[in-house]
Each structure stands twice: as structure tokens, then as C-alpha cells.
Design goal:
Layout: E1 5-9, H1 15-24, H2 26-34, E2 36-41, H3 60-65, E3 70-74, H4 84-94, E4 104-107, H5 110-119, E5 123-126, H6 138-151, E6 154-157, H7 165-168, E7 176-179, H8 191-203, H9 210-217, H10 222-225, H11 239-248, E8 252-255, H12 262-279
Parallel strand pairs: 1-2, 1-8, 2-3, 3-4, 4-5, 5-6, 6-7, 7-8
Helix pairs in contact: 1-2, 11-12
Length: 280
């Protein structure tokens, strides 16, 4: 197995698809043998932030039996650490089957991060949602990332910074995840505002319906850019971009699932795996 990790979205949404792919297809079994696969999602709960609550069930035991760690996306800005359900979900994640399969949480709330560090053995990932920063001020961004390195096990880097030498030459690359198929546009002007709106909905502990998704989760400024919107995205699904990331030395990657079919997610995974194999 090479020292490469790819984290897949939709641990609950795509559960049966992942089970079939990794257990019954030759390429799925090969990928699972050769690289570290992780999955992430969130049960419908008020600590979720980046994506509206869906009614999904995440089978931690089955994934862990396959040596696939599970991460819960507790990315709400507002976290009540006295919430009994939240504490129960953390305990559920932490009751891993063996030490070779370490589950984790993806978060933005520093109090939750500290609580998880002090009370569990879970891996703590700082979500890309946290980075409400002026991405053009590279010196300040570097200071910000270096400070996060002291607090979190891993950090999802703002995609705009992945290829900037002043950033990647001065950070601990092993602590960073790159969101490979980023759907947001370069330096989105409503970054925090949009995620805060999603978090506020989830804080009410409600399940999204089609109207909620259309009103809240779909990019609210896409129509303002018209036909130029896609051209402003950050190198989405670009294998030459992935090659550049590998050359720099990144080895932790994340595939988003928002607004995507399982076929697209698995096609991206297979293309990434093929690129990794060709470089060995």
C-alpha cells in the first residue's frame, strides 16, 4: 500500500454503492488494497454544517470491517457540547474495532476540536469551511495555516492556495488534505455567509426537502455569473492539476459528493488511482 489517502463523500448516501464497488469489483478491491480509503458524511443532526441534513444511515461497523475509517462532518459553527446525542455520536465513532482503523471528525468549531482531542482518540480534521480569510494576503494566510497545524491533526487547504509556492513550501504537507473537485468559484465572495445559512438550518435539527435544497444549498450566486460560472471553478476534476499536486508532495485528498452522482465520484477516484499508479 502506498502512502496515499483519498477521502470519499457520501458514507451514508452512497453506502450500498461503495460496498458493491470495494467488495465485488476488481478495480475497487485493488484500490482498497493499494491506497488508504476513508469516507465522510453526517447523520441528520444539528452539529452538521456544510450540507443540509439528509435522512441517511452510516454503517460504521461495516466500513471499519473493510479497514475504511469513517468521518462525521460536524461542521456547524455553533456546537452545544452538552448535547447528549452529539456526545453519543462521538462515542459511536470512537468505539472502533481495532487500532488500525481510526475514525474521525471534520469540524470548524475550536471548542469541539479541543473536546474531541481531550476525550477521544478520533482524528480531527479542520474543514475548508473554517477558512474565512483574505486568500490574496499570502503572508497572513501562511501564518493562519501554521497556527492551525498546532491545533488539528489535518487541515483541508483552501483550494486557491494548493499550487502557491509561498504556501506549500512552508507548511507540513502531510497535515493537509486537498479537496480535488472543488465546486466553488475562485475567492467566492459569499463563502462564510452561504455556509452560515446552511448551519443555521441544521441547528434547527430539521431534514431538508427539495425546496430547502434549492433555496439554501444550491449556489446562490451562480445565476449572477451566467455562462462564465464554470470557468471560474478551481480546476475541478483536472488530472493535470492532480499531477501537479502529486509532484508538490501532497498525499491526502478529498472527493466532494455535493450535487454529484455516485458514478462521477467513482470515476474521479479511478482516474486519481490510475494517475498515482503511473507515477510509481
Amino acid at each position: 500500500m502506498c502512502n496515499m489517502t483519498i477521502k470519499l463523500a457520501g458514507a451514508g448516501t452512497f453506502y450500498l454503492d461503495y460496498l458493491k464497488f470495494f467488495k465485488t469489483t476488481p478495480i475497487g478491491r485493488e484500490i482498497l488494497k493499494d491506497i488508504n480509503i476513508e469516507v465522510y458524511d453526517s447523520p441528520p443532526f444539528e452539529w452538521n454544517g456544510g450540507r443540509l441534513n439528509r435522512d441517511v444511515l452510516i454503517n460504521i461497523k461495516t466500513y471499519n470491517n473493510m479497514k475504511i475509517p469513517v468521518y462525521y462532518t460536524f461542521t456547524n459553527y455553533n456546537i452545544d457540547l452538552t448535547n447528549k446525542k452529539g456526545l453519543s455520536l462521538l462515542n459511536e465513532l470512537d468505539n472502533k474495532l481495532d487500532n488500525d482503523c481510526k475514525n474521525g471528525v471534520i469540524c470548524v468549531n475550536d471548542s469541539l476540536n479541543v473536546f474531541v482531542k481531550n476525550n477521544t482518540s478520533l482524528t480531527r480534521v479542520c474543514s475548508i469551511i473554517k477558512h474565512d480569510i483574505d486568500i490574496t494576503n499570502i503572508e497572513e494566510c501562511l501564518k493562519y495555516y501554521l497556527d492551525l497545524e498546532k491545533k488539528y491533526d489535518r487541515i483541508v487547504l483552501r483550494s486557491e492556495h494548493a499550487l502557491i509556492p509561498e504556501i506549500y513550501e512552508n507548511i507540513n504537507l502531510s497535515k493537509y488534505e486537498i479537496l480535488f473537485n472543488e465546486k466553488c468559484i475562485y475567492n467566492c465572495p459569499i463563502w462564510k455567509e452561504h455556509y452560515a445559512k446552511v448551519s443555521a438550518f441544521n441547528s434547527q435539527n430539521k431534514i431538508a426537502n427539495e425546496k430547502n435544497i434549492e433555496d439554501i444549498e444550491i449556489c446562490p450566486i451562480q445565476q449572477d455569473y451566467g455562462n462564465t460560472f464554470d470557468s471560474l471553478k478551481i480546476r475541478e476534476n483536472d488530472m493535470s492539476y492532480f499531477n501537479s499536486l502529486l509532484e508538490i508532495g501532497y498525499n491526502n485528498f478529498k472527493i466532494a459528493g455535493r450535487g454529484r452522482h455516485i458514478k462521477e465520484v467513482l470515476d474521479i477516484l479511478k482516474n486519481m488511482y490510475s494517475t498515482i499508479k503511473n507515477k510509481q
